[in-house]
Write a structure and sequence with these properties.
Layout lengths: L5 E3 L1 H11 L1 H21 L5 E10 L7 E5 L8 E4 L6 E11 L1 H73 L5 H36 L7 E3 L14 H11 L1 H22 L4 E12 L12 E11 L2 H73 L4 H36 L3
Parallel strand pairs: 1-6
Antiparallel strand pairs: 2-5, 3-4, 5-7, 7-8
């Protein structure tokens, strides 16, 4: 099983899978997008500055006349006119606007909601990484189990070939009937079929592992993990493991974070119906400046400042509906939290019981394989000495093969169960 171009353990497989998984890349991109949304929301806290440069051509017309008036020092009356209108208007304007009430009642809550949304996306990305790690571990152990089953099938085939040679020798010597050789040929054919099926199982498991790790089609993995090494005993009970899962699971943390998002969005939506206070200031540098008398063809500056308090019943009605919608979204998220906690209790309990059962099966398999190997050795010697028939050897070999398969299955089952338990608890 250690033959192959790429040495691999379950931990290495999980790391490679995380680096190449499209779902993880997508989750990370969603997290980056949410973080960019947080930065965009922060812009609303800043005062809005608008700069404008414009040129306007006005239609020409004669200045209106308002009659004549007498000046004591002059002997003739002086006509009163406004002068000729200036058709070309040049304007440079800087305007600053700051929505005071909106910043505190809407912008800041939405900014905090955007930050929590980004946090929730990061937790979701972490959860996706853990899911990919578990899938990679399961695929690796499935591949390792298939490789082990193939080695057992080949070992059984070698034993069947050796048994056939012994039977053929005894039949040639007249010690056994020819029917025994036919039975040996049938056992050999069955062992050959088992090898072919095991090779197919290896091919399927290898393809699945290659696809999950995004490795080339010619990649051959060498199983570098010792499957029969005992794993540490589980010292916690199911309740403590469940409590640890509730504390650690990224999905649950993401949902709790989304509760805060909905609360802040609800507050911001409700604030849209409140009266709005805004302040504004502007500085104009124009030619001509209409606020400078007399109007002349030259640049002059002027400024203005003001405050506006406004309220609309339409905004108030719409804000109530949007706030109610955000509240309903919060209730849905709260229900999702409760459902996930129930699912976690089942997931932890199943993985815990599977780990215990697989551990007991592992102990029984280690004990059983020793007895099966010794029984097979004794039957082989008895058969060669004429004290046993070929059927006894075949039965012993079948029992040895079953014991080996049970050991492999127990070793794979306990590692998959532990991997699932670690995922359920999400130990950090």
């Amino acid at each position: 099983m250690r033959q192959g171009t790429t040495p691999m353990t379950a931990e290495q497989a999980s790391e490679i899978a995380v680096k190449s998984a499209p779902s993880v890349a997508r989750a990370r991109a969603a997290s980056e997008s949410a973080r960019a949304g947080e930065s965009q929301a922060l812009v609303g806290v800043w005062p809005r500055l608008d700069l404008q440069a414009s040129y306007t051509r006005l239609s020409e017309h004669d200045a209106p006349s308002y009659g004549e008036f007498m000046v004591p020092t002059f002997s003739e009356p002086i006509p009163l006119t406004l002068g000729k209108a200036i058709p070309d208007v040049f304007l440079l304007e800087a305007r600053v606007t700051y929505p005071v009430s909106d910043v505190f009642l809407q912008v800041l809550p939405r900014y905090k909601a955007a930050g929590k949304t980004a946090d929730a996306q990061e937790l979701s990305a972490k959860a996706e990484q853990e899911n990919v790690k578990l899938a990679a571990r399961e695929a690796f152990y499935a591949y390792a189990g298939a490789r082990a089953a193939l080695e057992i099938a080949r070992s059984s085939l070698a034993a069947a070939e050796a048994q056939r040679k012994d039977v053929a020798s005894l039949v040639a010597a007249g010690a056994l009937a020819r029917v025994e050789q036919m039975r040996a040929d049938a056992v050999l054919a069955t062992a050959s079929v088992a090898v072919a099926r095991a090779e197919g199982g290896v091919a399927v498991a290898r393809t699945a592992l290659r696809a999950l790790l995004h490795q080339p089609e010619d990649q051959e993995f060498a199983v570098m993990e010792e499957l029969t090494t005992p794993l540490p005993a589980i010292t916690e009970n199911k309740q403590s493991l469940y409590e640890e899962a509730v504390r650690n699971r990224s999905e649950l943390a993401a949902l709790h974070t989304m509760l805060g998002v909905h609360e802040r969005v609800r507050d911001a939506n409700a604030a849209e119906g409140y009266p709005k206070l805004g302040i504004t200031g502007a500085y104009d540098f124009s030619n001509p400046n209409q606020r400078v008398a007399p109007v002349d063809r030259e640049f002059n500056g002027s400024w203005q400042a003001g405050a506006v308090l406004s309220w609309s019943p339409n905004d108030y009605a719409a804000s109530r509906a949007r706030a109610s919608q955000a509240g309903a979204d919060r209730e849905q998220t709260f229900a999702d939290i409760q459902a996930l906690e129930d699912a976690l209790r089942i997931e932890v309990g199943r993985a815990y019981e599977d780990s215990l059962a697989a551990g007991k099966a592992m102990e029984a398999a280690l004990t059983g394989i020793t007895a099966a190997e010794e029984s097979y050795r004794v039957r082989r010697e008895q058969f060669r000495a004429g004290a046993a028939v070929a059927t006894d050897v075949v039965d012993a070999e079948n029992e040895l093969r079953r014991a080996r398969l049970e050991l492999v299955n127990a070793a794979i089952d306990i590692r998959i169960a532990r991997a699932r338990l670690d995922r359920a608890v999400e130990r950090r």
